[in-house]
Write a structure and sequence with these properties.
Keywords: Membrane, Transmembrane, Transmembrane helix. InterPro entries: EmrE. With 331 residues, the protein is an all-alpha fold. The chain has one domain. Helices cover 79% and strands 2% of the residues. The chain contains 13 helices and two strands; from the N terminus they run ααααααββααααααα. Strands 1-2 form a two-stranded antiparallel ribbon. It starts with a helix and ends in a 6-residue tail after the last helix.
Length: 331
């Protein structure tokens, strides 16, 4: 339950991304600057945090030991995640990008077979948690209901250009996150891992920034300020909260899927934010039914996670009792 609460709180800060990315695009800002500036602004904050916690020596050692995996999965988890999101913001409003982003709920569940657990030294490929997949489907239905009324005013080309890149991002983010958790094996805390991935993805952001400089020129002051807000709110606060939640349950695909499903609440925060900040109209009755479906799906995920936790505790207690009842060998 604590992990799900952390996930929902992270979603609140993640919502800032969709609202401000759309705002920057409305003002004519390039997606190249919107995406790269976020990570440029994240870097100094994370460096200060990790250095204050005396975590730089360990992080440096880990990154030097396996530089190619760090570069690869950081590119997947950060670059292939955020660049498509900012690109999509140029072709669709925040609600559409945020709504499509919720496909990551299904993506996170479907990625289970790509990971292996080792039991007694033997590799056991993980299975798709069917119950979590079914519950996540309820959330996706709610998201579709939210999008239907507004999508009638969006052209086919806008739909494709705002949906397809987000689907790429929806798979890239949980894949990069989970692969990095496997790579680190608990040797790094959340702040160290986020900083390491930010540093490892920096070459890609520098290339994008240089290209933007020669094609569209320098970013405006407004884009700089909004990117700074996104960098702190979404890049530092939300990412760290979400990674803390996933780190706690990464050993259980069902619980991990439940935490990743909390991202579905982003669309609710985005709708509220765009109503007050960008002046979009109130949701239609059909959209309200979609929001209710999301809440129901979230509640079911929470309940299912609680049942899994109770079952796990019962099994541990039974194992302890069995161990205590074993006759002790005499010397």
């Amino acid at each position: 339950m604590k992990e799900i609460a952390l996930g929902i709180l992270a979603s609140l800060f993640f919502a800032v991304t969709f609202i401000l990315n759309h705002s920057m695009e409305l003002e004519g800002g390039s997606f190249l600057w919107s995406s790269s500036l976020r990570y440029f602004f994240m870097l100094p904050f994370l460096l200060i945090i990790v250095s204050a916690r005396k975590g730089m020596p360990v992080l440096t050692k880990e990154m030097k030991a396996k530089p190619l995996p760090w570069l690869c999965w950081s590119f997947v988890g950060f670059v292939l995640f955020y660049a498509p999101l900012t690109f999509a913001a140029a072709y669709g409003p925040g609600w559409l990008v945020s709504g499509t982003w919720q496909f990551t709920i299904i993506a996170g569940v479907l990625l289970a077979p790509f990971f292996v657990n080792y039991i007694d030294g033997r590799p056991i490929r993980q299975k798709v948690p069917v119950t979590s997949l079914l519950i996540s489907s309820i959330i996706v239905i709610g998201i579709i209901l939210i999008q239907i009324p507004s999508s009638q005013n969006v052209s086919t080309s806008q739909l494709l250009l705002s949906i397809l890149p987000v689907i790429v991002a929806a798979f890239a983010y949980p894949l990069g996150n989970r692969k990095m958790m496997d790579l680190c094996q608990g040797r790094l805390d959340t702040f160290q891992r986020v900083l390491g991935m930010t540093i490892a993805s920096m070459p890609a952001w520098i290339v994008m920034a240089v290209y933007a400089l020669f094609t569209v020129g320098l970013p405006s002051m407004s884009q700089l300020i909004q990117s700074l807000i996104v960098g702190i709110s979404s890049g530092v606060i939300a990412t760290v909260l979400f990674f803390i939640a996933t780190d706690r349950v990464h050993h259980d695909q069902g619980k991990l899927a439940a935490v990743e499903a909390t991202q579905s609440t982003e669309i609710i925060f985005v709708i509220i934010g765009e109503i007050f900040l960008l002046g979009i109209p109130l949701p239609t009755p059909l959209a309200l039914f979609g929001i209710i479906a999301i809440i129901i799906g979230m509640s079911l995920h929470s309940y299912y996670t609680m049942l899994l936790k109770k079952k796990e505790n019962i099994l541990v207690q039974a194992a302890n009792v069995k161990h205590e009842q074993k006759p002790k060998l005499r010397a």
